[in-house]
Amino acid sequence: MRIQLRGHHLFCLLGYRGKGYSEGFCANMTEIYETLRMKPETMIEIVSGPDVICAAFPSDQPSHCHNRTVYHKDQEILERVLMKIGESASWADICEAVARNVMPEDINQICSDCIWHPLGVCQEGIAHIRRSRELRELP
Fold this sequence. Notes:
Strand content: 5-15%
Strand order of the largest sheet: 1-2-3
Number of helices: 6
Distance between the termini: 26 Å
Order of helices and strands: EHHEHEHHH
Low-confidence stretches: none
Shape: globular
Helix content: 40-55%
């Protein structure tokens, strides 16, 4: 199995706690999250722009999937985990790269403009990955 993800969604998945933009968005995100949690050998292909998570963004809300700032965030995160668009790696290898190269407080700089940033879930997710190298069970 192969899942296509853009750069910033690597961090979004680490911080995911079952909340999102809509019921449909959460159902999609939870399915991806649980696949990666249960099968960390799943291959992730890094893509430029909208991915399988963006595909479930609610059409009745203003989308940010094509914003210049989001592409910048994708690139900055990929640089931190030493990956490039078009490359593939297992989810386990990506988690290991995050654990080696990213500190929880890095989120304050990289993701300061994200609406989820004030909740602190991504910082918690990165701290958890640094300790355990695997995703937490959802609440």
